[in-house]
Automatic annotation (TrEMBL):
Keywords assigned by UniProt, alphabetized: Signal
Upper lineage: unclassified sequences, metagenomes, ecological metagenomes
DUF4352 domain segment(s): 93-192
Pfam families, A to Z: DUF4352 (PF11611)
Name of this protein: Unannotated protein
Record organism: freshwater metagenome
Region described as Disordered: 38-78
């Protein structure tokens, strides 16, 4: 009797143990171990993502197209008879300069002879002091005639004729006053006159007037 009872208890305990193991296996399952291959795969994916981000940041940002620069406006070239108002080294010194006419050839006296292969020409100017200070200058020092293949002629001196009155070397004008005279030049005997340039303050002012001498 006792043996049967003990055997029954052992069977019951065995069944309970088996049932417990079955339930634990179904509910919890075994923990997953991270293999070296999985770790490498995850690391590679992370590196690829990082490199992609770095590559994107290394790419230069799109630069804005620079605005097209406006082409410089060509200076207006005056003609014979036109006036240009120029400023000297002092803002109060302002002179209206008019190229009245061109003497070509320029009349001279018997003692005036141009160098070999040269001829005399004269530029007749009218200068009007439109500033608030007196104007004193040697006009020929700031005057240039461009001729031929862009050669430049400085003023010269003659003893007789319309360009020998001293206007080229000494001129003084009070505000509102005007002076008229001729500047003599030596240019190539057969060269074509191109341009006349004039700058106040014996050529040291910042502004330069430009006149075309072509017909």
């Amino acid at each position: 009797m006792w043996a049967a009872s003990s055997l029954s208890r052992l069977l019951i305990l065995a069944c309970i143990g088996a049932l417990t193991l079955t339930l634990l296996g179904a509910c919890g399952g075994s923990p997953r171990t991270k293999t070296a291959a999985d770790a490498a795969a995850n690391t590679t994916a992370a590196e690829e993502s990082l490199l992609a981000d770095e590559g994107a940041s290394d790419q230069p940002a799109d630069k804005a197209e620079p605005a097209e620069e406006a082409e410089p406006v060509a200076p207006t070239v005056a003609k014979v008879g036109d006036a240009i108002t120029l400023t000297g080294q002092d803002d109060a010194e302002r002179v209206k300069v008019t190229v009245v006419e061109v003497l070509d050839p320029m009349p001279t006296g018997e003692f005036d002879s141009p160098a070999s292969g040269k001829r005399y020409v004269g530029i007749v100017l009218r200068l009007t002091n439109v500033g608030s200070s007196s104007y004193s200058d040697s006009p020929s020092n700031g005057a240039v005639v461009v001729y031929g293949d862009d050669r430049q002629a400085q003023g010269t001196i003659v003893l007789e004729g319309p360009c020998s009155d001293g206007f080229s070397s000494t001129l003084k004008l009070a505000p509102g006053e005007s002076g008229k005279g001729c500047l003599p030049f030596e240019v190539g005997a057969t060269s074509t006159l191109k341009r006349f340039k004039f700058t106040l303050a014996s050529g040291f002012a910042d502004e330069t007037g430009l006149w075309s001498l072509r017909d």
